[in-house]
Amino acid sequence: MDPLPNPAPLASKLRNTLIQYHSIGNGEWRVAKKTKDATVWRKPSEEFSGYLYKAQGVVEDVTNRIVDHIRPGPYRLDWDSLMTSMDIMETFEENCCVMRYTTAGQLWNIIAPREFVDFSYTTSYEDGLLSCGVSLDYGDVRPNFVRGFNHPCGWFCVPLKDSPGHSLLTGYIQTELRGMLPQSAVDTAMSSTLANFYSDLKKALKT
Known about the structure:
Blueprint: H1 7-22, E1 30-34, E2 39-44, E3 51-59, H2 63-70, H3 74-79, E4 83-93, E5 96-103, E6 114-125, E7 128-135, E8 146-147, E9 149-160, E10 163-176, H4 183-206
Parallel strand pairs: 6-8
Antiparallel strand pairs: 1-2, 2-3, 3-10, 4-5, 5-6, 6-7, 7-9, 9-10
InterPro entries: StarD4 (IPR042555), START-like_dom_sf (IPR023393), START_lipid-bd_dom (IPR002913)
Organism: Drymodes brunneopygia
Domain START: 29-207
């Protein structure tokens, strides 16, 4: 188990990595799934042997409220159907923490429940916010869970210029689920999970 990292350089590196993903040209992405709420693309990840996913959709609400529902905190567990528990293990400052969370089994439990320990950082980006994270090798793995690993991930949320009550939410996710899993099952689950994330979020913001 690694010691906790110094948060400042890790936060800075994470932010720069996400901004780099955000500048990848459209031609490098392939559509993986399209719903009325979001479009999901993917490209081979440079971090591991799976895919980097990009999800994007317009959400009807202000940036701060949307990000409050996404980042670690009291809202996330209420609406995210995939997340089954979340504990803040360490808080460095208001916008920076280490959290441990668990996810439900997927695809008729072909993908068993997973546990993650992530460093999470939320910062300003253009007129909006960026909430990003990366997994750490920290803390004991709980029984009955496989420890997954999130390579740099994050959500950019910026107000639409011509409609400030709406925000463009763009996510970059590259999750290594680990364990013995057929890659095709992982790819199916990831695309569906990201599309469902948008519809669940929209429902939560309306309540």
